[in-house]
Amino acid sequence: MPLIASLRNRALCQLASKAAMGDRTAFGKLYQKLLPEVFAFVRRRINKVADAEDVTSQVFAKMIEQLSTFDSNRGTIRAWVFTMVRNLIVDHYRSQGRRMTMSIEGELVDRPEDASQDARWKLQSLLKEISPEGQELLLMHYGDGLRFGEIAEILGISKDAAKQRCSRLVRQLRKDLDPSSSKQEPRYAS
């Protein structure tokens, strides 16, 4: 883990430990540090603002209940929280009898305003062909800015598997977007 990420994780773990012992100020600081990332993660997956706000509040309510179970030896606080977030989002969709959908095309184009409309449409079309698991992996890495180790913890796979799957998907997308590449059916297994 890079030094800055390691230091940030250590600071968050210290706040979590104090909060688990009932320190409200520590929980307030933990909440302030995690809220923007958690809400953005939820909002990328839930279109209705009110629903996204409800799920975000559920995350922090659950976090209060579960803080004593967090073990910093098993992973980062962010991965622990985002696992909780992901599960609550799945529960949200399940309670509505729907499947989770994601929009990742804007996250994969470096600067969407620089891409031609045709390239954006093609990318959007190709992204729809990717399995939901593959879409989620790409969104976690490119949209949410999660590191492969954190993604691996959240998805219950190895770091190498997360990195390899993401790399394979991006390589295939680049190949399918390149007009000079040979015509073949895209293969997007995650």
Give a description of the structure.
The chain has 190 residues and is mainly α. The chain folds into 2 domains: 93 residues, Orthogonal Bundle (Rna Polymerase Sigma Factor, Chain: A); 73 residues, Orthogonal Bundle (Arc Repressor Mutant, subunit A). Helix content is 69%, strand content 0%. It has 9 helices and no strands. The longest helix has 20 residues. The radius of gyration is 18 Å and the shape is globular. It starts with a helix and ends in a 13-residue tail after the last helix. About 4% of the residues have low confidence.
Describe the structure in brief.
The chain has two domains: 3-95, Rna Polymerase Sigma Factor, Chain: A; 105-177, Winged helix-like DNA-binding domain superfamily/Winged helix DNA-binding domain (Arc Repressor Mutant, subunit A).
Task: Set down the secondary structure blueprint.
Layout: H1 3-20, H2 24-43, H3 49-66, H4 77-95, H5 105-108, H6 117-129, H7 132-143, H8 148-155, H9 159-177
Helix pairs in contact: 1-2, 2-3, 2-4, 3-4, 4-8, 7-9, 8-9
Features:
mainly alpha, Rna Polymerase Sigma Factor, Chain: A, Arc Repressor Mutant, subunit A, 0% strand
How does the overall form come out from the CA principal axes?
A: globular
Number of strands: 0
Please summarize the sheet with the most strands: none
Q: Which percent range fits the helix content?
A: 55-70%
Give the termini separation: 24 Å
